[in-house]
Design goal:
Chains: A alpha+beta (about 375), B mainly alpha (about 280), C mainly alpha (about 300)
Helix content of chain B: over 70%
CATH architecture of one domain in chain C: Orthogonal Bundle
CATH superfamily of one domain in chain C: MetI-like
Number of helices of chain C: 13
Order of helices and strands of chain C: EHEEHHHHHHHHHHHH
Radius of gyration of chain C: 25 Å
Order of helices and strands of chain B: HHHEHHHHHHHH
Distance between the termini of chain C: 24 Å
Oligomer: heterotrimer
Strand order of the largest sheet of chain C: 2-3
Number of helices of chain B: 11
Largest interface: B-C, 87 and 92 residues
Number of strands of chain C: 3
CATH topology of one domain in chain C: MetI-like fold
Chain lengths: ~375, ~280, ~300
């Protein structure tokens, strides 16, 4: 994990149980000042519980939460300098937009004149100044979300927590709001922690992402690193698509890591992650897989002799899903396995002459293979 | 929407079947005819209360009813009791609803059962038990106290059977409460007290209004429990009317009843309006 | 939901006044009744609590049993009528247009909000010997008679109508009970009808079942929960009715509540009155238990 120069929030070994279910299991992570940090995982992975513990809405069973090096674990939610945008937005239905935004300041007993000014500023930040006297039911879903944003930002929190901020919006509004949120974060400079189950959303917005599964952190990294150097099959599969191949044996010779496969013979692994070397050095029994991103499968029209750096593969052409610039192509291998490949527009020109079921060849660069330990449950 | 109008599957469009329409019509007539006859005959210029033959229009029985100081006193008593019962029921009902909605505690199912018991047990059982209770405590003597303290035990009795109804109505309202609203308020720095004052109570307002109207009507309506818990000197409107009916049927009773029916109508209209307002706005 | 231990002060704030009130003014009075039901009158005013079961034994005296039996069958008949008519009325409301629905419901419920005493009193005018019902019957009788006269069959019925007696008869009391309880029984049936899935009815018709068959084999079973609720909330108050038999029965069609009232207001036999009240209460509990057993079974079936 990249050491952050300026750690704002430091979560140490946090655990939370609900009766017998462990929602958050010994989670440690650090969030830097001014970054957009995403908690990503499937539903029930504990990301929301983690967020609620940061907000103070749940109390941890063990572990500690440090903000600026001092523990806030015992500070009640209404005293923490952390605010939240709720999944349902939780805009108070009986108050006007203005009173919603002013609520926190009133609770803090800020002087009335100052409240006015700060509310005005917050509302203009989210472009809602002309809606200030409206009631929430007169607003659209997107506008309600802005109210929730303004209401939290006006408190000048150290951290803003966003629980599935885009899930209740329709697709078009979602893209727009995604951009706006990033812009807003740049303007106000507040650290954002976003909970989401949508990997695209996390990849597009976050500086760093923590991938969670079953209450545990799988990997914390930048979007690029997550994509190109996933630590295990779960992360690789959750972040984008991946083709997995069985590995018979992994050996280490002269610091070279070699994976023996049925499909391609012996492959030397170029990028060995810390976790991989750690596992290779341990006595633990690990099931290894070779992973390959679909876009690393290059479709070729005619037989191309593999060079030293490449391996080749052939199979039947399956379904083609047109997705704009690129298309996703299914390739069926003789052993009934199917692979996902990405075809560019140029490839498509050639593929168009082929019918479903005809043979195609693929070339794969040896260095594109990823060596992944299989996660215990996937 | 079930049985919607536009569906051409006519077999279940029960509202359009003439046989069923007729049943509905006859039921309505059955329910309203006695009351309408009562109202009409409150204007009948007949000395006898038998109200058999129409003898011309008069409002003199209204004048008589208003001049009947005992009847007026009973009426004022009833309204006083109803108002105090409503206030107490709203307070206790809201607290009960929140208690059962918010907390997990030992013997909760038993407590829930006890709370709903006054709703289901026969009125006469409650009347009897409260009568015996007041007599044991020596509280029947409140009848000798100065007004309005002579109404204390009737009010206590009414509150006891009315507030579980209020609690039920408010609890239904609470079920639609979005817990994130409360968390949002806490997140913004609100104290427990502020959460109740600023977030939960405003959400409950329609439920409280409905519960209040229900408590008011229940109190104004009650005869049996009042009949048992009132002393000889404290009389509510229904108890007074009862004794008048036992004595003899007069048009005066019709007049007094009509006034009460009109009050009920006004209250119902209010309730309907209040329930519609949030939708309209 | 919070555990009460997490915020004991808030919990105390909400629980002490409410549960305290219920304890003092509801449970404690019931306990007094319970205690009295095991007591004996030693003089006109004094009662000694001897733990005797005599008061309960007295419920099974022939003259009380007659009353109990009457209470039971009159309540049953009233409930059956309320449910049958109420079901049809609820069907009309449930299938009306969304705009009309609340108004139709209000139309049926409005009389329920009117004072019970006034409603019972208003029936005196209807059910009297010279009341509206007899007037209507007389009109029908005489019209029929003149019709028959036209075809020369006037000999079939007497020319003059002899008014029927309703007040002081079981018919009058049942009439009154139905009048009072009908709006109440519509509500749960209506709620149940609103909940059911219309496609089941269509499926039944589609599979060849007729209207009547669909009604009894699909609609009624699917709304059974609502029907049972309606039956209980109609039957229980009917069992304990005091006013209707008192005013419309003229003391000749007493029900159990009238006997209870007499023990307190006239006979001054509190122990026996207490035993009778508790007996009524026990019947209520048994009915509620049956309902909750049905509910539990129903929810299991769904799971």
């Amino acid at each position: 994990m990249n050491a952050q120069p300026d750690v704002l929030l430091d979560i140490k070994n946090l655990t939370k149980r609900f009766s017998k279910v462990v929602a958050v299991d010994d989670v440690s992570l650090q969030v830097g000042s001014g970054e957009i940090f995403a908690l990503l995982g499937p539903s029930g992975c504990g990301k929301s519980t983690l967020l609620r513990m940061i907000a103070g809405l749940e109390l941890p069973d063990s572990g500690d939460i440090l903000l600026d090096d001092s523990s806030i674990a015992k500070i009640p939610a209404n005293k923490r300098p952390i605010n939240m945008v709720f999944q349902s937005y939780a805009v108070f239905p009986h108050m006007t937009v203005e009173n919603n935004v002013a609520y926190g300041l009133k609770a803090k007993r800020v002087a009335a004149s100052e409240i006015r000014q700060q509310v005005e500023q917050a509302l203009s930040q989210v472009h809602l100044l002309d809606q200030r006297d409206r009631k929430p039911h007169q607003l659209s879903g997107g506008q309600r979300q802005r109210v929730a944003l303004a209401r939290a930002l006006v408190m000048q929190p150290r951290i803003l927590l966003l629980d599935e901020p885009l899930s209740a919006l329709d697709a078009k509004l979602r893209d727009q709001m995604r951009l706006e949120l990033v812009k807003l974060q740049e303007t106000v400079g507040v650290t954002f922690i976003i909970v989401t189950h949508d990997q695209n959303e996390a990849m597009a917005m976050a500086d760093r992402i923590a991938v969670l599964d079953q209450g545990r952190v799988r990997q914390i990294a930048s979007p690029e690193e997550l994509y190109h150097q996933p630590l295990d099959t779960f992360v690789a599969d959750f972040i984008g698509k991946i083709n997995l191949f069985d590995v018979r044996k992994v050996t280490v010779e002269d610091n070279r890591v070699l994976a023996e496969t049925d499909d391609f013979g012996v492959i030397e692994i170029q990028h060995v992650t810390d976790r991989t070397s750690e596992l290779l050095n341990s006595v633990q029994a690990v099931v290894w897989k070779l992973g390959l991103r679909p876009e690393k499968l290059q479709l070729v029209a005619n037989d191309l002799q593999p060079t030293e750096d490449t391996v080749s593969l052939s199979g039947e052409l399956g379904d083609i899903a047109f997705q704009g610039v690129n298309s996703e192509v299914e390739i069926r291998l003789p052993d009934d396995k199917s692979l996902a490949a990405v075809a560019t527009a140029d490839d498509m020109q050639q593929l168009r002459q082929l019918q479903s079921g005809s043979m195609v060849n693929c070339v794969i660069k040896r260095r594109d293979f990823l060596l992944l330990p299989e996660s215990a449950d996937s | 929407m079930l049985f919607s109008r536009n569906s051409k599957a006519a077999p279940f469009d029960y509202a359009r079947k003439w046989q069923l329409k007729l049943v509905f019509l006859l039921t309505t007539v059955f329910l309203y005819a006695p009351i309408i006859v009562l109202i009409i005959f409150s204007f009948n210029n007949s000395r006898r209360g038998g109200n058999v033959v129409w003898r011309g229009f008069t409002t003199k029985y209204y004048e008589k009813a208003f001049a009947n100081s005992q009847l007026v006193e009973a009426f004022i008593n009833s309204l006083t009791i109803a108002v105090v019962t409503t206030i107490l029921s709203v307070i206790l009902g809201t607290m009960t609803a929140i208690l059962l909605w918010r907390f997990r505690f030992p013997f909760k199912p038993a407590v829930e059962g006890v709370v709903s018991l006054p709703i289901v047990i026969p009125e006469i059982c409650m009347g009897v038990s409260l009568a015996m209770f007041f007599s044991q405590m020596g509280w029947l003597a409140t009848g000798d106290l100065v007004w309005p303290f002579n109404l204390v035990n009737i009010t206590v009795a009414h509150t006891t059977f009315a507030f579980p109804f209020t609690a039920m109505v408010i609890r239904t309202r609470l079920q639609s409460f979005n817990k994130e609203l409360e968390e949002a308020a806490i997140d913004l720095g609100a104290s427990t007290r502020m959460v109740y004052r600023d977030i939960i109570l405003p959400h409950l307002k329609p439920g409280i209004v409905a519960g209040a109207l229900l408590a008011f009507t229940l109190s104004l309506d009650d005869f049996v429990i009042t009949f048992f818990t009132s002393g000889p000197n404290t009389v509510t409107f229904p108890v007074k009317v009862y004794s008048m009916v036992r004595f003899s049927v007069t048009p005066e009773i019709n007049a007094a009843s009509t006034i009460l029916i009109i009050i009920t109508l006004v209250l119902t209209a209010l309730a309907v309006r209040m329930q519609r307002e949030p939708v309209a706005s | 939901m919070d555990n009460w231990r997490r915020s004991p002060l808030t919990f105390a704030f909400f629980s002490l006044p409410t549960l305290g009130w219920l304890f003092i003014f509801f449970l404690f009075p019931l306990a007094i009744v319970w205690q009295y039901s095991f007591g004996e009158n030693t003089s006109i005013v004094d009662v000694e609590f001897t733990g005797t079961l005599n008061n309960y034994a007295r419920i099974f005296q022939p003259e009380i049993l007659v009353l109990l039996w009457r209470t039971l069958w009159m309540s049953t008949i009233s409930t059956v009528i309320c449910l049958s008519v109420g079901y049809l009325v609820a069907m009309v409301i449930a299938s009306a247009s969304p705009r009309a629905k609340p108004w139709l419901l209000l139309l049926i419920m409005l009389p329920f909000w009117t004072n019970l005493l006034i409603r019972t009193y208003s029936l005196l005018n209807i059910l009297g010997t010279r009341g509206r019902l007899n007037q209507a019957l007389q009109w029908i009788w005489e019209s029929t008679h003149s019709l028959l006269q036209l075809v020369g069959l006037e000999g079939l019925m007497a020319a003059s109508y002899k008014p029927l007696t309703f007040l002081g008869t079981p018919f009058g009391v049942v009439f009154g009970l139905v009048y009072i309880m009908l709006p109440f029984s519509v509500l749960p049936i209506y709620a149940a009808l609103e909940r059911i899935d219309k496609s089941c009815l269509e499926a039944s018709l589609d599979l060849g079942a007729g209207q009547v068959r669909t009604f009894f084999k699909v609609l009624v079973p699917m709304t059974m929960g609502g029907l049972i609720t309606a039956a209980i909330i109609t039957f229980v108050p009917t069992l304990g009715q005091f006013l209707t038999p008192d005013l419309l029965g003229r003391g000749q069609v007493d029900m159990i509540a009238n006997v209870i009232e007499r023990q307190f207001k006239k006979a001054n036999d509190w122990p026996f009155g207490s035993a009778l009240s508790l007996f009524l209460l026990y019947i209520t509990f048994i009915l509620l238990a049956i309902k909750s057993i049905h509910d539990v079974r129903q929810s299991r079936r769904v799971v």
